[in-house]
Design brief:
Strands 3-2-1-4-5-6-7-8 form an eight-stranded mixed sheet, with helices on both faces. The protein has a four-stranded parallel sheet with strand order 10-9-13-14, with helices on one face. Helix 4 crosses helix 5, helix 9 crosses helix 10 and helix 10 crosses helix 11. With 400 residues, the protein is α/β, with parallel strands linked by helices. Helices cover 38% and strands 14% of the residues. It is globular, with a radius of gyration of 23 Å. The structure holds nicotinamide-adenine-dinucleotide. Nicotinamide-adenine-dinucleotide (NAD) binds next to helix 4.
C-alpha cells in the first residue's frame, strides 16, 4: 500500500482549511496552506489568526517551527503526497450552487498532481460531484489516468467556537473512489482525529453532509414557525423547548432566532434540493424550511412595527450582526436582511457588534438610550444592555 507522506497542501485557509492545516502541522506534517485572498495570506504569514478557534500564538509557533507556511502561489511542490481542498462552495446570486472556486482549486491541484498522490475534497458538494465532476478535472489537468492517483471525499463538521466538539474529537467521515483511497484518507486523518468512519461510497459521504445540515435547517425553521405561533398565544417558546427537552429520547432541542446564517446551514440544503430536482425527486421539506427561514427578518420587521407603532423615521438599534453568538462571521447573516428591510421601511437603523466592528463601510454603534427600539438579533456573551435604559427591546431569541 502507498503510504501517506508528511507533506500536505491545503487549498483554502478559512474556517475549515486553517484548522485542518494547524491540526496536521501539530502532529508533524509539513503543511503548505494555499489561499487566493492576498490580505488573508499576509495576515496569516505574520502569525495573525483570522478565526476564533485558532490563536495567533498557536499559528506563530507553527510558522516558526517550519511545519506550516501559507502562500498565494497555486503550485504544488512535487514531493507533496497529499492535497486537501477546503475552498468555498456558496450559492450564486440566483440562489443556486456555485462551484467556481472548487473547480479552480481542483484544476490547480490537478496541474501539480503526481502518480501516487492522494487528493481529499472537504468542501461541501452534491452527491456525484467528486466522481462525475472533480475526477475528470483532475485527470484532464494532470494528464494522469484515474488509476494513477487517489481521490477521496471527507466532509468537514467543524462548528466554530464549539468548546466541546473540535476537530480531534468529532468523528470524521471519509470515502474513496477506491478502497485504497478510503484507507489512505483514514490513515491520514487518524493521526489527529480520534474516530474516522469509512462510508461505503463517496456519494454516501457527500449526501450525509447535506443531510446533517438540512436536518438543522428544517428543525430550526420548524422552531421558528412554532415560535411565531407561541408569540400569538403569549407562550414562551424557550420554556416549551426546555420542557420538551426533558424527554430523554426522540427529541433534540432547537431554538428560535432571526434565521440561520453562516456558510453551511442556509447553503448546503440548497445543494441537496437542487440535486433532488435534477434527479426528478422531491425536496419539499427543504424548500419550505428555506422559505420560512428567508421570511424571518420580515416577520421581525412586522413585530417591530407593532411594538413602536410603525418604523418610518424611528431610530432602531440592531444588536448583534454576525450570524451566531460570539463569532465575527457575517456570511449569510440573516441580520443583514433584517437591517436592509428595516431601512426599506423607512427606519433609521444603526447596528452594534463589537466582534464585527466594521461592515459595509459602517462602524459598530455603541449601545445607548437614544433609540426608539432595540432589536436583539445575535446575543453575544459580552453584551451589556443596561445602557439602553428604557428603550423597548424586541428579542428575536424569544416569543415573549
Ligand atoms: N465554516 C464552516 O463552519 C464549515 C463547516 C463544514 C464544512 N464547510 C465547508 O467547507 C468549505 C470551506 O468553507 P469555509 O467556511 O472554510 O470557507 P472560508 O470562506 O472561510 O474559507 C475558504 C478560503 O478559500 C479561499 N479560496 C477560494 N478560492 C480558492 C482557490 N481557488 N484556491 C485557494 N483558495 C481559495 C478563500 O479565499 C477563503 O480564504 C465549504 O464547502 C463549506 O461548505 C464549512
Amino acid at each position: 500500500m502507498v503510504k501517506t507522506s508528511n507533506k500536505l497542501v491545503v487549498f483554502g485557509q478559512g474556517y475549515v482549511g486553517l484548522p485542518l492545516a494547524v491540526a496536521a502541522s501539530q502532529v508533524g506534517f509539513k503543511v503548505t496552506g494555499i489561499d487566493i485572498n492576498l490580505d488573508k495570506v499576509l495576515e496569516i504569514s505574520k502569525g495573525i489568526s483570522p478565526i476564533e478557534d485558532i490563536s495567533s500564538g498557536q499559528l506563530a509557533d507553527l510558522i516558526n517551527s517550519g511545519n506550516y507556511k501559507i502562500t498565494s502561489e497555486l503550485g504544488i511542490s512535487p514531493d507533496s503526497n497529499l492535497i486537501c481542498i477546503c475552498v468555498p462552495t456558496p450559492l450564486d446570486k440566483n440562489h443556486k450552487p456555485d462551484l467556481t472556486a472548487l473547480k479552480q482549486a481542483v484544476r490547480a491541484a490537478g496541474k501539480g498532481l503526481k502518480p501516487g498522490m492522494l487528493v481529499i475534497v472537504e468542501s461541501t458538494i452534491s452527491p456525484g460531484t467528486t466522481r462525475k465532476m472533480l475526477l475528470p478535472i483532475l485527470v484532464d489537468a494532470s494528464g494522469l489516468s484515474a488509476e494513477e492517483f487517489h481521490l477521496a471525499y471527507s466532509p468537514e463538521r467543524i462548528d466554530p467556537l464549539n468548546k466541546e466538539w473540535n476537530i480531534e474529537n468529532t468523528p470524521k467521515l471519509v470515502a474513496g473512489l477506491t478502497n485504497q483511497a478510503a484507507n489512505l484518507a483514514r490513515e491520514f486523518y487518524s493521526k489527529f482525529i480520534d474516530q474516522v468512519v469509512i462510508c461505503p461510497t463517496v456519494e454516501v459521504a457527500e449526501t450525509a453532509k447535506l443531510l446533517e445540515n438540512s436536518y438543522r435547517l428544517v428543525n430550526i425553521s420548524f422552531i421558528n414557525e412554532l415560535s411565531m405561533f407561541c408569540q400569538k398565544m403569549g407562550i414562551d417558546i424557550n420554556e416549551v423547548v426546555k420542557a420538551a427537552a426533558t424527554k430523554p429520547y426522540g427529541f433534540m432541542p432547537f431554538y428560535p432566532s432571526v434565521g440561520v446564517g453562516g456558510h453551511c446551514i442556509p447553503v448546503d440544503p440548497i445543494y441537496l434540493s437542487e440535486a433532488a430536482k435534477s434527479a426528478g425527486a422531491g425536496s419539499r421539506f427543504i424548500d419550505l424550511a428555506d422559505e420560512i427561514n428567508q421570511a424571518m427578518p420580515s416577520y421581525f420587521v412586522e413585530r417591530a412595527k407593532q411594538i413602536i407603532g410603525g418604523v418610518k423615521g424611528k431610530k432602531i438599534l440592531v444588536i448583534g450582526l454576525s450570524y451566531k453568538p460570539n463569532v465575527a462571521d457575517v456570511r449569510e447573516s440573516p441580520v443583514i436582511s433584517l437591517i436592509e428591510q428595516l431601512r426599506k421601511a423607512g427606519a433609521e437603523v444603526s447596528w452594534h457588534d463589537e466582534l464585527v466592528k466594521r461592515w459595509n463601510g459602517q462602524e459598530s454603534t455603541p449601545i445607548s438610550a437614544g433609540f426608539d427600539l432595540a432589536i436583539i438579533a445575535t446575543p453575544h456573551d459580552y453584551l451589556e444592555l443596561s445602557a439602553l435604559k428604557y428603550v423597548p427591546i424586541l428579542n428575536t431569541r424569544s416569543s415573549i
